[in-house]
Specification:
Layout: H1 3-25, E1 29-35, H2 43-55, E2 64-70, H3 78-87, E3 92-95, H4 97-107, E4 113-118, E5 137-141, H5 144-158, E6 164-169, H6 175-189, E7 193-198, H7 205-214, E8 219-222, H8 226-229, H9 232-241, E9 246-248, H10 250-255, E10 259-263, H11 265-280, E11 291-292, E12 296-301, H12 302-308, H13 314-317, E13 322-324
Parallel strand pairs: 1-2, 1-3, 3-4, 4-5, 5-11, 6-7, 6-8, 8-9, 9-10, 12-13
Antiparallel strand pairs: 10-12
């Protein structure tokens, strides 16, 4: 090749190279987020997820774009919102909990789905197994039924006299069906009568608590649900009005529950960014194992105990990770 031709060719490559790099840099991953509740009540968890993305080099509007749809506590809207995100042809469909993940699963078998967390991914039928999820779904799980049983045990240890405990359920959350049998086994071993009360929305909370009072309930155990977690203050106020001690996740304890026991949801939300990154880089959800939560904490609310006239045994205090004075 002659020198002049070589220089011309080299100049052409030099001209094309910046264009090719620019085209590569402009590639934006589109994430569709399906939320079961309100954006305002989920601000800290979304920030945790976005923080995880930033740690991996993603910048909103630059190399990643998040399209969000919120059901605002109306679970019957989840299928339509999931379908809407599918029509946008997002690269990854991100959601949380059993109702949201089931809606996403029914909406597409092609678009990869990542759930921030699920109370029991296998029992809910979200994945075939933890090691090999199969299909187009993966994420983090934390085996809620066992956590619920532990909350009941902690309540009984703190207040040995209790014999009637309520569980407030949201009937349209499918995970309650797998949780109740495990909780009933624990209740029987503790000689506790378990009674179920339902509430579809915050407008039904007060009716449920009045029914608990009429049934002479001694305490309440709460299960994670987006609607419950989004209305912790209202729940705590109603429980205080009826002088009912209750147990739930650590967030419940921060809102006024006597006992909190559960996983670090913010950490799970941050961890979801790793799943999204793997999929954006070409991994298939079927080959990305579902991760089990490994960090659990016990939180005691001494302020709530004093208001209820409950003396928390030293045995529990010594095991607590955090104490709210």
């Amino acid at each position: 090749m002659r020198r002049r031709e070589f220089i011309t060719l080299l100049g052409g490559v030099a001209a094309v190279w910046p264009i090719a790099c620019a085209q590569q840099a402009e590639k934006v991953a589109r994430i569709g987020f399906l939320g079961a509740t309100f954006a305002s009540s989920w601000a800290s968890r979304i920030e945790a997820f976005e923080s995880g993305l930033r740690d991996l080099g993603y910048v909103q509007g630059k190399n990643i774009l998040i399209e969000s749809r919120w059901a605002e506590e109306q679970y019957d809207q989840l299928p339509a919102l999931a379908a809407e995100l599918v029509r946008l042809k997002v690269d990854v469909l991100l959601t949380h909990g059993t109702p949201g993940t089931l809606a996403a699963k029914r909406a597409t078998t092609d678009i990869p789905i990542v759930f921030l967390y699920s109370g029991d991914a296998v029992a809910a039928g979200l994945v075939a197994s933890l090691s090999r999820p199969g299909g187009n779904i993966t994420g983090s799980t934390y085996f809620l039924p066992q956590l619920m049983a532990k909350r009941l045990e902690l309540l009984k240890e703190a207040m040995p006299h209790i014999t009637r405990v309520a569980i407030l359920v949201k009937p349209d959350n499918p995970l309650f069906k797998s949780t109740l049998p495990v909780l009933e086994i624990a209740a029987n071993s503790l000689k506790i009568e378990l009674q179920q009360f339902g509430a579809h929305s915050p407008s039904e909370f007060e009716v449920a608590f009045l029914a608990m009072a009429k049934s002479h309930i001694d305490a309440i155990v709460f299960q994670e649900d987006a609607v419950f977690l989004g209305n912790l203050r209202a729940i705590a106020d109603l429980a205080a009005r009826q002088s009912l001690p209750f147990a739930g996740s650590s967030e419940f304890a921060e809102a006024g529950a006597l006992i909190g026991y559960g996983v670090d949801f913010l950490e799970l939300c941050r961890r979801a960014a790793v799943f999204v990154d793997k999929i954006v880089r070409g991994a298939k959800p079927a080959d990305v194992p579902v991760e089990q939560a490994t960090k659990f904490e016990t939180v005691l609310n001494i302020r709530a105990a004093k208001l209820l006239g409950v003396t928390i045994p030293t045995s529990i205090l010594l095991r607590a990770d955090r104490v709210i004075e």
